[in-house]
Amino acid sequence: MVSQSQIHELHFILVPLMAQSHLIPFTEMAKVLADHGVKVTIILTPLNAARFNTFLENAKASSLNIEFLSLCFPGQEV
């Protein structure tokens, strides 16, 4: 059995596929996890962050422990 203090130590890192359709379900999953008291970070590209800005802002405003980390993927360089 997991104690309450252990739950608050959990940190989920979610990395959705870079397709647009994966970000909304991952954000909803993050809300469910955060609602249970864990910290959640979703990693996304700057382009997806710009496309879903309103949706992401609503998730941030929910006062849940959800963070969004925007990372540049060197697609053109590769």
From TrEMBL:
The gene is UGT73C3_4. It comes from Quercus suber. One of its GO terms (molecular function) is UDP-glucosyltransferase activity. It comes from the Eukaryota. This is Udp-glycosyltransferase 73c3. SUPFAM superfamilies: UDP-Glycosyltransferase/glycogen phosphorylase. Keywords: Glycosyltransferase, Transferase. Belongs to the UDP-glycosyltransferase family. The keyword Manganese does not apply.
